Amino acid sequence: MNSSPEWVYVDGSEQAAVSATDRGMAYGHGLFETMAVVNGQVILAQSHAERLKLGCSRLNIPFSAEMEHLFWSELKVLSARLYNGTLKLIVTAGSAGRGYAAPRPEPRRIFLGYQPTEYPQSYREDGVAIRTCVYRLPVNEQLAGIKHLNRLDQVIARCEWMTDDWIEGVMLDTQGAVVEGIMTNLFAVIDGNLVTPKLDRAGVVGVMRSYLLEQAEVLGLPVQQVRLPLQQFFEASELFICNSVIGIWPVRQWDQSIFKPGPVTHQLLDITDQLFKVKTA
Amino acid sequence: MNSSPEWVYVDGSEQAAVSATDRGMAYGHGLFETMAVVNGQVILAQSHAERLKLGCSRLNIPFSAEMEHLFWSELKVLSARLYNGTLKLIVTAGSAGRGYAAPRPEPRRIFLGYQPTEYPQSYREDGVAIRTCVYRLPVNEQLAGIKHLNRLDQVIARCEWMTDDWIEGVMLDTQGAVVEGIMTNLFAVIDGNLVTPKLDRAGVVGVMRSYLLEQAEVLGLPVQQVRLPLQQFFEASELFICNSVIGIWPVRQWDQSIFKPGPVTHQLLDITDQLFKVKTA
């Protein structure tokens, strides 16, 4: 999980370092996307691009037609180079002088290419154990949903445990509603409905989450975005976590409660398996 | 305000760039201090060091005896080199692989040396105009007080206006209490008491704010840390903002309300003037 990148591209050239005056470093003034690359193709590339654009608009970072062009051309070249692995893109407001004001941000693009992470097969088949984090996500409608670089909430929550027993931590907001995992979104089957937390007050609208919501609709599954306390999730008949890199992992244990992957989870696992099956070019 | 640094030191050597895998960039996993340097001396160096140490402990960044030694020796060399200006120090959790977990952070030190910013003399003498920001600070006890790198709240608030009419924006928390300026702390004289917002739920405990609270006690001024709505600040008889670089600026206008520097402000202005008067070595 904690491996180094194979290579780094900054604004179109291979280099391992970024200006120390970048507003990404100074203030976290930027966004990121973590994308799975399979046989040279970026999975759900369009959705990543759309979330990135939305995030830029929310953070006053111009996402020009030229930038969009660069994004797609670099994505093509670098996913071909990586071929299989994880491609992380950071877009920041670029370099600037001291001070919070950002009169004319010139965005910076940082692509990091990582080898594929090998997860135990049991995660997908039997599920993973997750825990509830003590740390609570602050409610902040203006920053909710986007994948910005201010991630201390996740860093602090992830510091709560050091053992490998727990694969993920679930975060509640300060008002007690379940929001998401530290690195994943959360789905549950409750009373026959596929439910996932609303992300209008906190959390990241995951690209895989959006894809699964679409697919569930196609399958005719009843879907709800909800604001529910912990206890109601513990009463779920199925539970799983998801993100763009892992796809879906069923939850087999949450704190002291035990779960089993059920029919809805298996149906959606099949769909993500298909999604990640990219023919060799 | 938006000038470039004269030089940058990263982990003890002069270089303008930082590893793209730094956790400061990835997650804002770090802290910063912005220090005034006058005639080769860092103003309130000890207080900056203490806040930095506190921040490191809150963010699980080890601040070892070796790091403290490096901090002081580099501060000495670089403040002598800068002689007059603003010294910004960023301390991050260092480079790491992908993922929020930070098993063994090896901190990184980034010093940026800036020429002195020339502010109009009228700011200090007649005061400045400030406005209330629409954007609200989320309540977050765990991150409150420290000067961490997750500064999107300030970036977004500072995007609310582009003209030079307003020198500073005041931020309220999501519960309506006045917290601080975007780049300053706020003081007021209300009913004869010197008051400043409590910073246990949001905001940065400014080094200059702490100094002024100490000095006010020495002067025998009645001081209170308060949680008050906007309206009560508008009824203040005196108002001023402060930080480590500007010292104190009286507020002459806040939104549509007009203020005048009074005796308490003048008393504390004298004290900051003394603080910044460092004899040439």
CATH superfamily annotation of the largest domain in chain A: D-amino Acid Aminotransferase, subunit A, domain 2
By oligomeric state, this entry counts as homodimer
Helix-residue proportion of chain A: 25-40%
Mean pLDDT of chain A: 96
- Count the strands of chain A? 16
CATH fold field value of the largest domain in chain A: D-amino Acid Aminotransferase, Chain A, domain 2
Question: What CATH first level of the largest domain in chain A would be assigned?
Answer: Alpha Beta
Radius of gyration of chain A: 19 Å
Q: If helices are DSSP runs of H or I spanning 4 or more residues, what is the number of helices of chain A?
A: 8
Class per helix and strand makeup of chain A: alpha+beta
Describe the model.
The structure is a homodimer of 281-residue chains. Chain A has eight helices and 16 strands. Chain A is α+β, with helices and mostly antiparallel strands and 281 residues long. Chain A folds into two domains: 7-114, D-amino Acid Aminotransferase, Chain A, domain 1; 121-276, D-amino Acid Aminotransferase, subunit A, domain 2 (D-amino Acid Aminotransferase, Chain A, domain 2, Alpha-Beta Barrel), CATH 3.20.10. In chain A, strands 8, 9, 10, 11, 12, 13, 14, 15 and 16 form a nine-stranded mixed β-sheet that branches. Chain A is globular and about 50 Å long. The mean pLDDT of chain A is 96.
